[in-house]
Amino acid sequence: MEVKLRNPDRIVHVRGPMNVAGVLQRLDVNPETVLVISNGELVTKDHVLADDARVEIRPVISGGAGPARCHACSCTSVIEVRRHRSSYCAEHFIDHVRSQVRYAIDHYRMVSYDERILVAVSGGKDSLALWDLLLDMGYRVDGLYVGLGIGSYSDRSEQLVRDFAARCDATLHTVDLATEYGYDIPAATALRRRSSCGVCGLSKRYAFNRAAVERGYDVMATGHNLDDEAATLLGNILRWNTPLLSRQSPCLPAHDGLSRKIKPLYRLGERETAAYCVIKGLDYVVDECPMVAGNTVLRYKDALNELERHSPGTRAAFLFGYLERARDEHFAVTASRGGQVVSCGRCGQPTGVNERDHARPATCAFCRTRERVLVAVADRGAPVVREHARGAGAPA
User: Fold this and answer.
1) How far apart (Å, rounded) are the C-alpha atoms in residues 232 and 226?
2) Would the pTM count as exceeding 0.70?
3) For the chain, which terminus, N or C, has the lower number of CB atoms within 10 Å?
4) Are 252 and 103 a contacting pair, CB within 8 Å?
5) Which residue has the higher pLDDT, 339 or 309?
């Protein structure tokens, strides 16, 4: 059979017939990190693949393990979720995803139906799944795409987002980093003091919050999933980064010019959001960002995937246990120990300032980083990315 593996894309041939579990074992692929697709449909570990079958093994989703019948209706399942010890047909898997999002929204009182939501969409599986779910659930939700300037990868991502918005007749806002702020993410490689991923995350957070506030949205939503949140938690605990631990929550209230931020997918793993997209027919970017090399969060995800492989439910127990028992009891007080929140002297957005720096005009992390990026690019002798339409402090 012809087996296509992704990231990096490659094709291998395996002699069949053989069930999915045997193929994954032969290729030394962790079932917790992939989904197996044959003839455009999801297949589980017991499905037998013919010798002439064409199969795709897609990363970060899994065919899993467990019963081959849907636990709700006894129909043939398309995916198993090992931590729930359940298997689902397509219809009941969609119900499962919606119920997890509904629980997350209700448990943290994330948003009401009369509030306006701005969801950050990147063209990846999580953000498109979130936008689709919130639209289907009847919320007032629009999208925001931030153009990062990463060549064909960004071009492909933006086109998928635009296609989704057109298909759903939904409102999409766009912000282009180069046009708005004078640099793109490839330019950040000139900055030695901060990784390109660090600049990317900071830039997206800044642009997202600014757009939400200036356009009058009540809530901003991101597609952070269970894998993302557990890996972030692991990294913060390994470094005992107590300020970040105190702020890690599926719902952060509005505060001093910051919009309320919610993460409705925090109870769903990457494999579940990707499977949702496959079942719903949502096209998304499967390829990894070409600038992701060296991202430490990916290493934490790999470690948690290995634990999950041998002990399903470990990742959820780790994150949910922290949120339910440790955060409020041990780390909530940390947030009140930070410096005063003031307006950035350059762009007017909120930023923290310590008492010892109170005499100096405050400058937010984004403005400081942007200045260093532009200086580093100039020192290299490279031209400015392109003439930006406004400075960081001008109205959107």
Assistant:
1) 10
2) yes
3) C
4) no
5) 309
